[in-house]
Amino acid sequence: MRRRVAxxxxxxxxxxxxxxxxxxxxxxxxxxxxxxxxxGAVVQGRVSLLxxxxxxxxxxxDAGSGGRAARYIAERLSLERGGLPCTLAELPVAxxxxxxxLRFRWRVECEASGPARLRSRxxxxxxxxxxxxxRIEGEASGVLERVLTEAxxxxxxxxxxxxxDANVQGTDLAGYVELGVEHILTGWDHLAxxxxxxxxxxxxxxxxxxxxxxxxAHSVTLGLAVLGVVRPEAAAVEALIGFSIALVAAExxxxxxxxxxxxxxxxxxxxxxxALCSVLGVGVVSALTLGGLALFSACxxxxxxxxxxxxxxxxAVAFAFGxxxxxxxxxxxxxxxxxxxxxxxxxxxxxLGVELGQLGIVALVWPLLMLLARLGEGGPHRAVSEWGSxxxxxxxxxxxxxxxxx
Length: 406
Fold this sequence. Notes:
The protein has 2 domains: 2-25 and 187-405, no CATH class; 29-171, no CATH class. Mean pLDDT is 84; it is low at 8-25 and 161-168. By secondary structure, it is α+β, with helices and mostly antiparallel strands. The longest helix has 34 residues, at 340-373. Strands 5-6-2-1-8-9 form a 6-stranded mixed sheet. It contains 12 helices and 10 strands. Helix 1 (2-18) crosses helix 12, helix 5 (188-199) packs antiparallel against helix 12 (379-405) and helix 8 runs antiparallel to helix 9. It is 56% helix and 17% strand.
């Protein structure tokens, strides 16, 4: 048993080290808004410093007006009209931006008339999966948006004075469904949380309860965040997502090992220590939040230790943490500031895509776990549960401390 525990600890640490190269759920994204006129456009572009670091830009030396970052963004976001490229009329000017982001404004002039086309080549050479969210405003088009990717890097825009037809509409319902599927399938932290929940599920009924609780919860907060009703601090949400992964995975190991005191004490003590650090000004999560998590963890383990049917309590925890994960899902859509008429189909399609991707993962993982449970009197299943929980716990712990300490 000691050798097994030691091996699991080593695996957990190795997973945490491996996580330094794992991008979690935050996908490479950028944003632009275009105010169109017959002779050009006023443009605002926004890119994260983390993404620009892939190009070896120095945030302090290259982030000013007319600097390397500004020129790169203005060159990679281009407008054509009548088949001819529009030219830069004003150098990009740096604007105030949220921490970790650069935002610039510039103007382009178009000599030709006719159909316009917007094109994005931002970061595609270093991040082929990069998503660019373009938003246009014009007299003819109103407000439209589209997601530009490596497969579809350009967008034909409506000509001024012309009606908007299906060929120039923004991203449709199917496009947002696809975006939701891609978001969950590339969101390693959300997938890790889902797998941790499935590892100890013993029946299809338990799986249904866990998935339903998680789905309902994150659907609620996804909608609230995108609609602007609630806007929690993004850094704190990211840290809590990491904590949810670590806690559920640690809970798995605790249940499998016989429910000793070590895990609850370690979790609660670590959170109280982080709360003390927060009081001293270290980290991005408030001391009150960390203290609340410590109290929650202590009560949760105490209830779980007395529960005759742990599955019900685990479903409740899936719901509670699903609320947090929903705010994480909302980041992509909330940043786009969609108009009301476009918001409903975007929200519905994106959430539907997330659910389809989630169900696909469940349909893949659950039958494999049940197959392992039938082999060797359940030995392979227990081994996978132990080692899988240790791996996920290592990843979650790394993400939590990295994000909490900022």
